Amino acid sequence: MSTDAAARDARPRAGLGRSTAIFAVWTGLSRVIGLVREIIVAAMFGVSGSIAAFAIAFNIPNVIRSLVADSALSAALIPVYTEMVEGGRRRDAQRLVGAVAGLVSLILGALALAAIVAAPWVMPLFAPGLSSDLQDETVRLSQLMFPIVPLLGLTGVVSAVLQANGEFGATGFVPILWNGIIIAFLGYAAFALPDDDRITVYAIAIVVGTLGQLVLLTPFLARVERLRLSIGYRMPEIRRVLVLMLPVSLGLGMINVNAAIDNVFATLVSEEAVRAIDAAFRLYILPQGIFSVAISTVLFPTIARMVARRDSVGVREAVASGVRQIVFLLVPASLFLVVLAEPITRLTFQRGNFDAAATDLTSKALVTFTIGLVFNGASLLLLRTFYSLQMPWLTTKVAALGFVVNIVLDAIFYQPFGVSGIPLATSIASMVTFAVLMVLLRREIGGLGTRSLVDGFVRCLAAAGVMAVLAWSTWTVLDSALGRSTIAQIACMTMALAAGLAAYLSAALAFELPELGKLSSLIRPLR
User: Fold this and answer.
1) Contact at 8 Å (CB) between 47 and 358?
2) Both ends of the chain: CA-CA distance in Å?
3) Cα separation of 52 and 330, whole Å?
4) 3-class secondary structure for 207-218?
5) What is the pLDDT of residues 367-411, one digit of tens each?
6) DSSP 3-state of 432
7) pLDDT tens readout for residues 421-453
8) Cβ neighbours of residue 523 under 8 Å, at least 6 residues apart?
9) For a tag site, which of 177, 202, 239, 307 has the least CB within 10 Å?
10) Residue (of 79, 223, 102, 95) closest to 154 by Cα position
11) Cα atoms found within 13 Å of the Cα of residue 69, Cβ hemisphere only
């Protein structure tokens, strides 16, 4: 490697720890604020009635968004854009960004309009177990929220360019803005509007918050790239992005299609099951959003640069290190959620219209969701590695396999297991897709140190077992002594978390887990 190339390579590596730490902080804060939003929603709407219609109505625009916008665009655009910049074609890269943004505005705007028109015929198909009144409400709410599709598409383009240029702070912050806007709208609705109008304000807040994200990111884009909208479909790179985007869209979109299918089966369990599973998902996704999303997002451009430079050793090291970090962080989070699912759900949601029965349903769903947390989190990094390699069709096939496994298990589990069965199907599908992705990626990049990964997983699991026992014991003793008031439960959970964290770190040190030192290196840049 030349001196110049080595210098270029050193810069992204030097900034990786800081970028991961900053992005993780913003992402973690956004998840916490998002959880506050969910607490407010739970208290205002409970788990039945209009909130069941809202959950389905919001999910369908999310499916369309995941198929043709946002994450799929980022995953397809970053490798091509990075390759052009690395090859000294900065001006062509600017033209590419403008052309992609122009096509997104045109195509997704038309798609959103078509979805609004077709909603009365399509949306009831996703709510077969709901009453006709709630099906009508699902149609109306979805029509209000379909405009988020083109907005998220443009946001995906802007975020991809910013992250490819090493700007993670702004893209990490915008979800905080999104949640903040929604909380403000919900606060207004709670104090100023009758109950029947509040769900409409919630839907409008989703759209306003999504627009706010794009508005905030635009000035940051101006610092690193000039955005000139065009319809430059004749650029060969546009065709490459679209070719990459098709399988990426199918792969990433399959996740949200799975969620839509889960909702269909949930309506067959009960009206309350839809929102109970959705609330459990919000708790389940919290540690993944803080840890695995941050690590995967920050490593993605770095791996793309290594692929562009044909640095196969660097790719293997980055992926293996990222997977180990995700396992180290998510295994204890999984066991903590499993052993304390009911008190966590009670403390988080049980107030207002969210009663003890809703807590019971939600905590059961949370336990079976959490079984697949580590595998789903690690899969995020494996997927992005395939996108960097510009081999997205493999991931599409794996996603299709996961979709089939999920829908078959949904059909098998939803009756005998009820609300627990649907998340259990999702967890098993996550395990299957992770295993297949690992096998395929080892074949493509020449190994991942599988023995080391398995050894690290086993030691993390053992350390997390110590943590789970101490956390559960601490909570049980304090719960009996302090009672069930909100302040008492906060104290119980805080002490259980502190005891569990101390136990895990001590056990990790005793088991000589190297990820403990790497975690310290990520925290150090923030000081």
Assistant:
1) yes
2) 33
3) 29
4) HHHHHHHHHHHH
5) 999 999 999 888 888 888 887 887 767 878 888 899 899 999 999
6) helix
7) 999 999 999 999 999 999 998 888 877 778 888
8) 21
9) 239
10) 102
11) 26
